[in-house]
Records
---
Amino acid sequence: MTNPTPERVAVIGAGMVGLATAWFLRQRGVAVTVLDRVGVAAGSSWGNAGWLSPSKVVPLPDPAVLRYGLRAMVSPSSPVYVPPRPDPRLLAFMAGFVRHCTHPAWRRALTALVGLNRRALAGFDALAAAGVGGPGTEADILAAFATTADADHLIAEYDQMRAGGQEVEYEVLTGDAARGREPALSDRVVTGVALRGQRFINPGEYLAALAEAVRGAGGEVRDGVGVTGIRDRGTVVDVQAGAQVETFDAVVIATGAWLGELARPFGVRTTVQAGRGYSFSVPVEKLPSGPLYFPGQRVACTPVGDRLRIAGMMEFRPPNAPLDPRRVHAITEAVRPMLTGADLDAREDEWVGGRPCTPDGLPLIGRTRAARVFVAGGHGMWGITLGPVTGQLLTELITTGYRPAELAPFDPLR
């Protein structure tokens, strides 16, 4: 059974997913109020690499992760870091994550993501056509390697993605050809793989523009509102923030790594764990024309303004834990041999944010056990790329009652 189109919807969370959902709801004439405990892009949306790269959207539980081994994962210098601590929820998440680190599970999850990936850039185009934020800067993503064997692993992954229905176009380059394209690459680079047809944005600027677009379209975006509870009353939903209670026709929970706190009472049992990523920016002699990727080091670099943003690591810790300087140091030393002309000791904007990760690597998008409570989150590293298409498809479900086929694999009650 479906409900009538709601007149007033609360969107909890002002990251890419929440703001995109709010904007598309406004285009359907729905009155929207966005509530965030801190403010726009305060979570994982601000300091990430800003890639709009559906060709790279793959499930996080990857058989390659297990090659590190458990001993490596507890090292602060490891690209995938699990600090040892007595945390039953984290242990349950890691057990589910490891179960999905198989080739069959990875291929199934990849197939599930194809529908979103095919529409991802069109979501940005729809926003740009309405004057929101621009479509992003078109560029190849150039992966650089210190060994040809490492390059072979990425090429094999791209070929598997093609076989699974993804659109992937790449070109293999010699080290000299890669440096010819991007002089910031050092002599340690022996080969490169250019992934064509991708885009990138400055995520902080983009999210600020999207928030203003929501306001300009008549929506509200309220900062500093920490939602503490949601009560479904059948025909309406109460949203509580401190001592204040406000009533809406429907609610969208898009709180990133905190999604489970509000969604669990409505039947969402999948654990959403913060997979924290770090970034900082440095000056470079020659700014690259597009993103650079160092798969062996698991580090991504993006030109942001007149500096190079360097991002990496996957750290399974609470989302509000303080920044760990050891992780910044590990990224710096990992990428130092691969770059030239970058002043890695002149770091600014050191940042950590909690990407919302699920054990099976698939987001949670759709209706909960309560007909008027929806969730949108768990996109892992791909919330920026998949934010607009998530907002489009969820808006379709909320306003018509019918679930688009692309959302079937992401049922929050699975």
---
Amino acid sequence: MPDAEPSFFVRHEFLIRRLHSLTGLVFGGYVCVHLLANASILGGAEMFQNIVHAIHAPGPFLVVLEWTLIFLPILFHAFIGIGITVGMIPNMRNYPYGANWRYTVQRITGLILFLFIGFHVFHMHGWLHFDAWIAVVEKWGGYQFRPYNAASTAGLALQNLLVALIYAIGVLAAVFHFVNGIWSAGVTWGVWTRPEAQARALTACMALGMALGTAGLGAIWGMRQVGRPENIDAAIAAEDRMYDAKVESGLLPRNEHKRSHPATTEGPGESNSTTDQLPH
């Protein structure tokens, strides 16, 4: 009986692994930007809101950029990563003991990230931006974030201690997965081949991981502080002033869907910034 033909993934293992490595670096770059942008909340609600305004400056082109540079690479990386984990693509390499446990944790954090990213996108953005869908997911605790009231809505969304703990676990999983992935990519692409170079690279990756982990956890703490009852009204007032000023100057298009408490009139400066109108 002739041997079965190798699967598509086995036949193209070399190419798939390198694409998996490259998309992992794209994902890691996004993680760095995302965590550092979120950590700006430690400088106050205004600083964080300015960064979010800059991120949303491309307007309708933002969706194209997100899918091209973020979502599609992450989906490809996640799909192939799950395939590697369950044995779709055999592990043909021999890992020394020191790297073997990191390889195992890499797979575990990858699965954690797959679940966490799904939760995070639902919790903050609701997955899909259709009014009928949003009306439903808000009742399930989704779609909590509004870009033009960034600090206040993120802060309120993280007031639940269990939710904050889930975010902390997700952040630490993302950081480990990224920095260990950098080290693995360096081996895969032949950047560091000698044991001494690999040891130095591992130290550098660990230092980067410590910095990113601190930024990520600091962002969670800072957002929770903004969302506290004694701070929330000041944050909302600052966000509304910034929104009105940018709309009046033409630097920001009016978009009430990106606010937590849309204005009841057409003119700028007439929004109601009461916590009763924030997403729950």
---
Amino acid sequence: MSGSRDPFRKTLQSVTNIKPLDSIERLQRAFLKSASKVLPHQLESSIKREDNIYILTKGYYWLYRKPDKLRLFTVKAPHIFGLADLLIPAVGEIYMNFSPGSEVYTLSYADTQQVLSQAPGLWKDVAILLSFHLHYSYWRDLHLLNDSAYDTIKGKLLELEMNTDEFREKNSIVNYILSTTKISRSTIMKITKDLIAGGYITANRGHLININHLPQRY
């Protein structure tokens, strides 16, 4: 392994720091007046996306690709999902899983359009939020679209570190990377074992405690 300044952490922190909380708050305040709360028993199973936006006020959710159950994104509250499909419907099947204790509300596309037509200034907030989604997609592509298993694992370790202690306790390093990439279990275990042995990351029973320093190359 060789060490150097790693741009991955800087990029992820930059994307995280630009999450448009003010825009999300304004949109949530407008949408929640007409939205319906998702019942607890619905959160216990996967929710197939329908013609609704989803307003997450507490907790987090995972977005999955249905054919291979690949976990695409982990999104923490506060957040709104589905606004892009309001303009151009997505192609392909995806579904969501919400964390226990999450608070989720839905609003139909028709009602969402009505809210926005009554307050057209909110379209700017929609554009800002969609722009943030593009920046986050860039971060995801940065470490996934390459030929290096290490770069992909490095990116996923940084994602895991950015989550809460509770999240890391429930998601081991190996299981998190397995669910979000196509890398084999043996490769993940080999690289993470070497990172732990080299003092680059600290883990307890397979769960990430912290990242000390990730080398640029493996």
---
Amino acid sequence: MDKVIIAEGRTTNEAIENGLKQLRVSKDRVEIKVLENEEKRSFFSILAPRVVKVEMTVKEKQEEKQLDKREMKSKKIIELSQEEQEKASENVKVFMEEIKKQLPENTNYVINKDKTGLKIDISNENLGFLIGYRGETLYSFQNILSAIAGKKIDKKVRVILDIEGYKAKREKTLEELAEKVSKTVIKTKKPIKLEPMQAYERKIIHSKLQQNDKIKTESIGEEPNRRIVISLKK
């Protein structure tokens, strides 16, 4: 729902500036409608204090709408040839053998390849530091592996990394959270904002609740503080 305020000032510009300060947004983020113009003053109001009123509506960012749609849809998969799969796998293997020397003893990894890219599983119960808070380090590492896999390959190589089954556990946690929060929203009839999440986590929440005929989900804010709001459907 768009945020709307009425701002006042001695001139139109002053009223707009006051409104922008109140909304804490830039001018290009709002629609402005002058309600009382300083030029339209009657003879009897000439001695009254000059007040200009403007209605200001915060516009929803187009890119945010597009992000919501992208979160609900799977990205188009780029297919790799057999030769490209082998090359990507070899690139990652060379890198992982070097990295493995810096990891805890008995760390193992498995690389599975197919035409959609690589799936890499790393196992060792002492790799929490490589997962990081809410998987932040894991996803950064995944991006690095994707770049390494694509060396001397003209296509972007999709890499899915998991460490000690973290992703499956996190997905289950998020689905349980979505169910719990949706029940609270239905009971209280008040929207609830979740904490900031990465895109893949927001997609899990959206997907889990998209079939709920009483609940709607939307993402607000900008990365890395983009989050989901769960509310009742009107």
